[in-house]
C-alpha cells in the first residue's frame, strides 16, 4: 500500500519536474533572447569574477569573440591590460551597484556592475552592462564646438561693429556702452523723439551725432543748441524766431529760429533741463502739432523737425519739484537712452586713452606710449568729468610729457596718487607760505581740474557758479589755456 502510494507520488513528481524543466527551458530561451538582443553590452560573471558569458553587443563593442574571455577571470583581464577598470570586480567587492566611465580601444564606455544576491544576501553573480557613449560624447563635443564657434562669430560681429564705430571715432568696448550705441543705431531709422541721459561728458552729444549720421535726415542739418548757454531772455526768440519789430533790439527783417533752420533735419536740445518754463510750453506745443509761430507773429509755420534732447540732470526729480513740465517730460521721454558714466564702463578707458593719445599725437606728429604703471593708474581713476576729462588729460599728456614714454609721474596728481584726493586744509598750507599764495595755489588747481572736466569756459562757469568773464580772467591770471 505504502509502496503503491510512493510509486504514484513519484510519477506525479516526474511529471511536475518535466513541466518545470520545460518552463525553465522557456525561461532560459527568453533570457537568452533578451541578453542577445540587447544593444547594450552585457557581461555575466560568477562570484569569483570568472566571465560566464558576454552578449553579441559586447563582442561588437569590444571587438572580441566571446570565446576569448569566457572562462577567464576579470582580475587576469585587468592585469593583461585588456580592460582599464572593472565594474564587475568593484561590484563584487562592495556588493553594490557601481558605474564607471571606461576607455576601451579609443571608445568611451559607461559600465554598470550590478551584483546578484542569493537568498542569504551573498553575491552569486554580477551582471555588467556597458554602453558605448563615444557617439554621444562626440555629439556633445561637436555641440560645444558649435557653441564656441557661435560665440566667436558673435564677438566677431561685435568687433566689426566696433571697428565701424571706431572709424567714426566712437570708442565702445564695454557691453553697457555697446548697448547704448546699438540703441542709438536702432532709433536712427525712426523719427521718434529721443532723450539722451547721462552725466556731463559721457558722450551724449556724440550719440546725437551718431543718430543723425545714420538717419534718413543725414543730408539735412543737425542743429545743436545748449539750452543752458543761451540767456533766458533770448531763448524763445532763438528757438522759435521772431518777426520784424517783435522787440527792441530785434533785427528789422525778423529772424528764423533754430527750429525753422532745422527743418527737414534734427534739432538737438542739449541741457534741456535748463529750458525756461515759458519755452517749455512752446516746445511742447511744437512737439504736439509740428507748428511754430515766430515771436511777434501770427502765421504758423509747419515744420518737419526731429527732436533729440539731452540732460545730465534728474528730470524725474525736477518734475516732482515742479521745475520741469510733466507733459513735456512725457513727450521727450519717448525713447530714453542712458549713456553710462566712464567709471561704469572701465573696459572703455584704455581704448579711449590709446585713441586720444594717438589722435593728439598725430595732430602734432608726436608718437607717445604709456608705461604699464601709467595705464594702470588711468584705469583705476573714476573720471568725474567722464570722457571729456579723459580726453583733456590725454591732450595734456601728449603735449606736456618730455619723453616718448608717459609714466605715472607725468599724470595729474590725483590720478598718480591712485585716485585719492589730496588732503584738505592741512595738506594745502605749509608754514612760510602766505594765505594769498595758498589761496592762489588752490584756485589754480581748481581751475585746472574744472577745465579738464568741462573743456570750455561756459561749462566751467556753470559748474563753479561764477560767470564766464570771471573764469576767463582767472585762467589768464594763472596762465592756463
Ligand atoms: N565713446 C567715445 N569715443 C570717443 N570719444 C568720445 C566718446 N564719448 C565721448 N567722447 C568725446 O568726449 C567729449 C565729450 O562728449 P560729449 O560732448 O558728447 O558729452 P556730453 O555727455 O554731451 O557732455 P555734456 O553733458 O557736458 O554736454 C567729446 O569731445 C566727445 O567726442
Automatic annotation (TrEMBL):
A Pfam family this chain is assigned to: Sigma54_activat
Cross-referenced PROSITE patterns: PAC, PAS, SIGMA54_INTERACT_1, SIGMA54_INTERACT_2, SIGMA54_INTERACT_3, SIGMA54_INTERACT_4
MF GO annotations: ATP binding; DNA binding
Keyword Acyltransferase: no
Keywords: Aromatic hydrocarbons catabolism, ATP-binding, Coiled coil, DNA-binding, Nucleotide-binding, Transcription, Transcription regulation
Keyword Disulfide bond set for record: no
Coiled coil regions in record: 129-156
Domain Sigma-54 factor interaction residues, every copy: 170-399
SUPFAM superfamilies named in the record: Homeodomain-like, P-loop containing nucleoside triphosphate hydrolases, PYP-like sensor domain (PAS domain)
Occurrences of domain PAS (ranges): 27-78
GO biological process: regulation of DNA-templated transcription
Residue ranges occupied by any PAC domain in the UniProt entry: 95-145
NCBIfam families, per the entry: sensory_box
Protein name: HTH-type transcriptional regulatory protein TyrR
Amino acid at each position: 500500500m505504502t509502496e503503491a502510494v510512493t510509486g504514484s507520488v513519484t510519477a506525479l513528481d516526474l511529471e511536475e519536474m518535466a513541466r518545470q524543466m520545460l518552463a525553465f527551458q522557456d525561461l532560459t530561451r527568453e533570457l537568452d533572447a533578451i541578453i542577445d538582443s540587447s544593444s547594450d553590452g552585457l557581461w555575466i560573471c560568477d562570484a569569483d569574477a570568472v566571465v560566464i558569458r558576454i552578449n553579441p553587443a559586447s563582442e561588437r563593442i569590444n571587438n572580441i569573440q566571446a570565446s576569448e574571455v569566457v572562462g577567464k577571470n576579470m582580475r587576469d583581464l585587468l592585469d593583461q591590460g585588456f580592460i582599464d577598470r572593472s565594474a564587475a570586480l568593484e561590484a563584487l567587492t562592495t556588493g553594490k551597484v557601481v558605474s564607471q566611465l571606461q576607455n576601451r580601444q579609443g571608445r568611451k564606455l559607461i559600465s554598470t556592475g550590478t551584483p546578484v544576491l542569493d537568498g542569504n544576501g551573498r553575491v552569486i553573480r554580477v551582471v555588467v552592462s556597458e554602453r558605448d557613449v563615444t557617439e554621444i560624447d562626440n555629439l556633445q563635443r561637436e555641440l560645444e564646438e558649435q557653441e564656441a564657434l557661435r560665440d566667436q562669430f558673435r564677438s566677431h560681429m561685435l568687433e566689426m561693429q566696433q571697428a565701424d564705430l571706431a572709424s567714426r571715432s566712437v570708442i565702445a568696448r564695454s557691453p553697457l556702452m555697446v548697448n547704448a550705441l546699438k540703441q542709438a543705431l536702432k532709433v536712427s531709422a525712426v523719427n521718434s523723439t529721443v532723450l539722451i541721459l547721462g552725466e556731463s561728458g559721457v558722450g551724449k552729444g556724440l550719440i546725437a551725432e551718431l543718430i543723425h549720421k545714420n538717419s534718413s535726415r543725414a543730408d539735412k542739418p543737425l542743429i545743436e543748441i545748449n539750452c543752458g548757454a543761451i540767456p533766458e531772455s533770448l531763448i524763445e526768440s532763438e528757438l522759435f524766431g521772431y518777426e520784424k519789430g517783435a522787440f527792441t533790439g530785434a533785427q528789422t527783417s525778423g529772424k528764423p529760429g533754430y527750429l525753422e533752420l532745422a527743418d527737414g533735419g534734427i534739432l538737438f536740445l542739449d541741457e534741456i533741463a535748463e529750458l525756461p518754463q515759458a519755452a517749455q510750453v512752446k516746445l511742447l506745443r511744437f512737439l504736439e502739432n509740428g507748428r511754430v509761430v515766430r515771436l511777434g507773429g501770427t502765421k504758423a509755420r509747419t515744420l518737419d523737425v526731429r527732436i533729440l534732447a539731452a540732460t545730465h540732470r534728474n528730470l524725474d526729480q525736477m518734475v516732482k519739484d515742479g521745475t520741469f513740465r510733466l507733459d513735456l517730460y512725457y513727450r521727450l521721454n519717448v525713447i530714453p537712452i542712458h549713456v553710462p558714466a566712464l567709471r561704469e564702463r572701465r573696459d572703455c578707458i584704455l581704448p579711449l586713452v590709446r585713441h586720444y593719445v594717438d589722435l593728439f599725437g598725430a595732430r602734432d606728429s608726436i608718437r607717445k606710449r604709456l608705461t604699464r604703471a601709467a595705464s594702470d593708474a588711468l584705469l583705476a581713476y573714476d573720471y568725474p568729468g567722464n570722457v571729456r576729462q579723459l580726453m583733456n588729460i590725454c591732450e595734456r599728456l601728449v603735449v606736456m610729457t618730455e619723453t616718448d614714454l608717459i609714466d605715472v609721474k607725468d599724470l595729474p596728481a590725483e590720478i598718480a596718487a591712485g585716485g585719492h584726493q589730496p588732503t584738505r586744509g592741512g595738506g594745502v598750507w605749509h608754514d612760510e607760505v602766505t594765505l594769498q599764495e595758498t589761496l592762489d595755489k588752490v584756485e589754480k588747481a581748481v581751475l585746472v581740474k574744472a577745465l579738464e572736466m568741462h573743456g570750455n569756459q561756459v561749462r566751467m562757469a556753470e559748474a563753479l557758479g561764477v560767470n564766464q568773464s570771471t573764469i576767463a580772467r582767472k585762467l589768464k591770471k594763472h596762465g592756463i589755456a
